[in-house]
Amino acid sequence: MSEIFLADLSDLATAQLEPLGDMITEIASAALGGAVLLAVVAAIRNRILK
Asked: pTM for this one?
């Protein structure tokens, strides 16, 4: 009986954490994209100002 309960609890925890992991992945991806964009803009500005 307790094995079934633990399996259900594990499934529930996985179902709850999966969207959180997806959200963290999205945020990290957006942050990385923003950092790359800033680096490109900085490089272009430095090239123009020289």
From this structure: 0.56
